[in-house]
Design brief:
Blueprint lengths: L1 H8 L1 H16 L6 H19 L4 H18 L2 H5 L5 H33 L3 H19 L21 H29 L8 H23 L2 H5 L13 E8 L14 H9 L5 E3 L5 E3 L2 H14 L6 E11 L9 E11 L6 E4 L22 E6 L6 H4 L3 E8 L20 E6 L4 H18 L2 E6 L5 E5 L8 E2 L4 E8 L8 H5 L2 H28 L33 E4 L20 E3 L19 H22 L10 E3 L5 H4 L11 E4 L32 H6 L50 H15 L41 H11 L55 H28 L1 H23 L5 H20 L6 H18 L17 H4 L8
Parallel strand pairs: 1-2, 2-4, 3-4, 8-9, 9-10
Antiparallel strand pairs: 1-13, 4-5, 5-6, 7-8, 10-11, 11-12, 14-17, 15-16
Helix pairs in contact: 1-2, 2-3, 2-4, 3-6, 3-8, 4-6, 6-7, 7-8, 7-16, 8-9, 8-14, 8-16, 22-23, 22-24, 23-25, 24-25
Length: 1009
């Protein structure tokens, strides 16, 4: 509840902060699945709010800046080290982050805009537009998938989709999960109405929640193949079905060479020590100044390979003459890879096609040829018997790409077959970049069903075998290594589904989910119209005229509303209906029992229709038809009967009236004006069912009947609930304006009416019973039953004494009280007084005395007064609102000391002064709760405990130098204590530290008194 209130009070601050925070943790160099989902969910939740708030452009710009900064922070360190100076690197990073953030905001806003105006389904539209935008940006931007929000980690449960959908499938799933999360949070945030009258809203809410649940189940079901399919690498044995291959990476450590970087001889020496059939060098391992230097180096490498069947993947950087320049003075530099063995230097050559912006794009030239394929003959390993190997060699297709090439989508779309191994040299400048490129290489290898040998020569670079079940990094940093991997035999060289079609399948499938249902509905409705075209009425003025009444609504499928309709026949109307109009011949107007019109006998040829005759007959028919509808509109309900014309009206037919037929029953809407009033008096007074007769001879309309209801003289109603007793204290209902559906009209228990009003009450009851007789016997009451608390536990109520600040009346004099007691006493001592004086007395007595003669004193004890009967009443069960209000007061009182201490730490003594005013408002509300009889004993106990804690806090933890604040806070505590326990005396208040004797502390100067 507190979080929902916080969101409702500050939606802009909350949603922008959540989006920026999620982007900070999720949009790093390697985006993570869950934070990206929550980032999109926060945007989906915030977009509808932003559209309906003032200044949407300003808040959109603020959201854009927050997302750009949040996504840039996680990539700041790798970007700073990309170039020699940090300024251009940071500028490029901010530009790319701003562009991708704008793409994300555009996707979210487009989804909300379209779905709100077309009623489309967000569950399929947002994933479609999200996947489409990132497919487009990855093909247009120079960094490819490196700038996208596609998760590269945390989505391993959907890794089996890579050969089918590629990264676009992960984008679709990410957006779909964001829709599920946003709609789930939105349902909790918005809530729903419990009112049964809002049936349409409840059905819509149920439909939305059902769609979200179905989408969540589908996304969960897509993870099932991960638990079924094997994600392990292919085994190395048996040799009949497996082809083992030893691969390695040459990374000479710095201790083995002199200088800043290893040279050609260092790489040759390191490669000869690796026991592998394929050895890969990192990107740009050696450099050549000309074509001649390159060819000489390749011959030297060829002669250095120790044995036959061993291949070295040499990555180089060369400077050659630009052939496109006719002068021959311009040279270009490019990065390439050559596969060399001891038999040839031209097995395979590939040049890097995609360069790093600014860092490489100004100094290097990209290649233009797609990756080639070389079929490597794999000979029998030494430890495998000849009989188990079969053929002397087994073919394995090998291809290559370099570093940033793997960030581009559809990298190997030009290959005609599936390669078994991909040579992937690289040289990254930061470990975060190396890890991200490792994830991209693994994704590309899984997409085409191959295995990639990744060799990163950068500082802190990661190396290993990716794809085909190999998902872990083998080594970080420098140092050569080798590893044996296995391939199935025979190897299936058929390209995967994604390698054949690329991202086109995901685009087509995602938009088919959007427009497929719409097209299906249109096709079904069109086929239905075509199938029923013979039965559909048409206007052909040259041959016949048919009227098409509106299609009757299926009223039987709806639940009737009590008191909304009342069946009224022509005999029940206050005046007689008009005479029926002359009937037409049966060939002209026929009342069909079925709602479907009959099939026409023939269809006119359009060429036979004369334009002038068509217009003339159409106008005459319109006038006749409207005149007929104006007369019979009040008699025939369009929802109950269908009257159609099966033949063309003729002049002779209008002159031959038929015998009048009984008019069918007509339904009029009965409107009760008292039921439209929300006051409680509508359940007591009923209108007299005797409306005046209208002046017109036409049947009275329902609105006329509702307006002309005879009013009754209001009679005072003395019936009501029983008054409170000692056993049931008087309770005031809480203000439930926020929860209006909980306030009901409870049935009252009538008490015996006073004698002076018995006649009025009886007459009111009589009129109420007479008016209720006009209602149907099967009317269902629309009022809800009274609210009954679910818990039957008893609660103790604290009834406070009258406040001491109320004025008291002065006491009466003692003589007046004595006189009142003597007058009110019955059978007192006055009955024994002898006012005539004593008889036979020797003295004269001027006053009568009490005659106590014969009275026996102290003989019997006075009779004991019977104890007052204990009141027996029903246990008090408070309303849920009373319980909730007491719990809120208990929570506020319990947190009061902590809040006071926090205000003191934040604002000092002025914070305490401001808090005292808030505490005074809390005391006023608490006293109001007590005077209404709704305070629990637990609430009173907590309030007294809070007073003690506040005074202890003021004495020991708060250094209050301003004594007026001490006095103000003490007075607030004393005011609350006087209300809760006015008879007790409290002595724990702090004493003000005023300098009362100022002459001692500040003596007067000399010479003054």
């Amino acid at each position: 509840m507190a979080l929902r209130t916080l969101i409702q009070r500050s939606p802009n601050t909350f949603h922008i902060s959540m989006a920026a925070t999620s982007a900070l943790f999720g949009l790093t160099m390697s985006p993570t699945f869950v934070p990206v989902v929550f980032t999109l969910a926060s945007l989906l939740l915030y977009a509808p709010i932003l559209f309906n708030r003032p200044r949407p452009v300003a808040y959109t710009a603020l959201l854009w800046i927050s997302l750009s900064l949040g996504s840039s922070i996680g990539r700041l360190v790798p970007a700073v080290n990309a170039l020699s100076t940090a300024g251009p690197s940071v500028a490029v990073l901010l530009a790319m982050s701003s562009l991708t953030s704008a793409v994300a905001i555009f996707a979210v806003f487009a989804d909300v805009y379209v779905c709100n105006r077309t009623g489309g389904t967000q569950a399929v539209f947002f994933p479609a537009i999200w996947a489409s935008l990132w497919i487009t940006t990855s093909h247009l931007l120079p960094l490819g998938r490196l700038t996208s929000w596609t998760p590269v980690s945390g989505a391993q449960s959907y890794s089996w989709l890579s050969p089918w959908t590629g990264p676009a499938g992960i984008d679709w799933i990410t957006a779909a999960w964001a829709v599920v999360v946003s709609q789930s949070i939105g349902s909790w945030y918005m809530g729903y109405s419990e009112d049964s009258s809002l049936e349409t809203g409840r059905r819509k809410e149920f439909s939305r929640s059902t769609g979200t649940l179905v989408l969540a189940l589908v996304l969960t079901a897509l993870t099932i193949p991960t638990f079924i399919l094997s994600g392990f690498p292919y085994p190395l044995s048996p040799p009949e079905t497996a082809t083992p291959l030893v691969v390695g990476c040459a990374l000479p450590p710095s201790s083995k060479f002199d200088g800043p970087a290893p040279g050609l001889d260092d790489y040759i020496k390191e490669s000869r020590m690796i026991p592998a059939r394929i050895v890969l060098w990192p990107e740009a391992a050696v450099s050549f100044r000309s074509d001649k230097d390159r060819d000489n180096a390749f011959l030297h490498i060829q002669h250095s390979i120790p044995q036959r069947g061993t291949y070295w993947g040499v990555s180089f950087e060369e400077e050659i003459t630009d052939q496109s320049d006719g002068s021959g003075d311009t040279s270009i530099r490019r990065t390439g890879l050559a596969l060399i063995s001891n038999t040839s230097v031209h097995h395979m050559t590939y040049y890097k096609r995609f360069l790093v912006p600014i860092a490489e794009s100004f100094s290097l030239s990209p290649g233009s040829s797609p990756p080639p394929i070389f079929t490597l003959p794999q000979s029998k390993p030494p430890l495998v018997p000849k009989g188990r190997w079969g053929e002397p060699t087994r073919p394995l297709d090998v291809t290559a790409s370099i570093c940033l090439d793997f960030a581009m989508p559809s990298l190997f779309r030009d290959l005609d077959s599936r390669p078994a191994l991909i040579l992937a040299p690289a040289r990254t400048w930061d470990p975060a970049i190396g890890n991200r490129m490792w994830e991209e290489v693994r994704q590309r290898a899984n997409e085409i069903g191959s295995v990639a040998l990744w060799c990163d020569g950068g500082k802190g670079g990661v190396s290993g075998v990716a794809g085909g079940g190999y998902n872990d990094v083998f080594q970080v940093g420098e140092g050569s290594w080798s590893r044996t991997i296995g391939f199935p035999y025979p190897f299936d060289s058929t390209p995967t589904f994604y390698a054949r079609f690329g991202d086109a399948f995901v685009l087509a499938a995602s938009w088919l989910l959007v427009f497929g249902p719409v097209a299906l509905r249109l096709a079904v409705s069109r086929s239905c119209r075509l199938a029923t075209s013979d039965a559909c009425p048409k206007y052909f003025a040259a041959v016949e005229i048919r009227t098409t009444p509106s299609r009757p609504r299926q009223l039987d499928s709806r639940q009737p509303i009590a008191g909304s309709f009342q069946l009224i026949t022509s005999q029940d109307l206050p005046i007689r209906l008009d005479d029926d109009s002359p009937k037409k011949s049966e060939s002209s107007f026929i009342q069909h029992p079925s709602s479907r019109p009959a099939k026409p006998n023939r269809s006119p040829h359009p060429l036979r229709v004369c334009i002038g005759s068509l217009l003339h007959r159409f106008k005459s028919f319109a006038r006749t038809f409207l005149r007929k509808r104006s007369r019979d509109g009040a008699l025939t309900d369009p929802h109950s009967t269908r009257v159609e014309s099966t033949g063309a009206p003729r002049v002779s037919e209008y002159n031959t009236p038929l015998a009048p037929t009984p008019s069918p029953p007509v339904e009029y809407r009965l409107v009760n004006t008292y039921e439209l009033n929300a006051s409680a008096a509508s359940s007591v007074f009923e209108p007299e069912p005797a409306p005046p007769t209208p002046a017109s001879s036409s049947p009275p309309s329902p609105s006329w009947l509702s307006r002309n209801v005879q009013e009754t003289n209001p009679v005072l109603n003395f019936e009501g609930k029983r008054g409170p007793t000692l056993s049931s204290p008087l309770l005031s209902p809480l203000d439930n304006s926020a929860n209006g559906h909980l306030r009901q009209l409870e049935p009252v228990t009538p008490s015996s009416p006073p004698p002076s009003h018995s006649k009025e009450t009886q007459s009111a009851d009589k009129r109420s019973s007479e008016s209720s007789s006009f209602r149907k016997a099967d009317d269902h009451s629309t009022a809800k039953p009274p609210l009954i608390p679910s818990s039957q536990s008893q609660y103790d109520i604290f009834v406070p004494s009258p406040p001491d600040f109320e004025p008291e009346l002065p006491p009466l004099p003692a003589d007046l009280w004595t006189l009142i007691n003597i007058i009110n006493s019955q059978g007192g001592h006055l009955n024994n007084m002898d006012f005539t004086g004593k008889q036979h007395a020797e003295v004269v007595d001027f006053g009568g005395e009490v005659d106590y003669s014969g009275y026996e004193w102290f003989q019997e004890p006075p009779p004991k007064q019977p104890p007052p009967p204990q009141s027996v009443g029903t246990p008090y069960v408070p309303l849920p609102g009373v319980i909730e209000q007491n719990e809120a007061f208990e929570f506020a009182l319990g947190a009061a000391p902590n809040v006071l201490y926090a205000r003191y730490k934040q604002y000092g003594q002025l914070g305490v002064l401001a808090w005292c005013s808030e505490f005074g408002e809390l005391i006023d509300n608490l006293k109001d709760l007590g005077f209404k009889g709704n305070m629990f004993v637990a609430t009173r106990t907590q309030a007294l405990r809070t007073c003690e804690e506040l005074l202890k806090l003021m004495k020991h933890s708060l250094e209050l130098k301003m004594q007026i604040i001490v006095m103000y806070l003490s007075s607030q505590v004393a005011r609350l204590r006087r209300f809760l326990d006015g008879e007790k005396t409290w002595d724990d208040y702090p004493e003000p530290q005023f300098p009362l004797d100022y002459t001692k502390k500040y003596p007067p100067p000399a010479g003054e008194y």
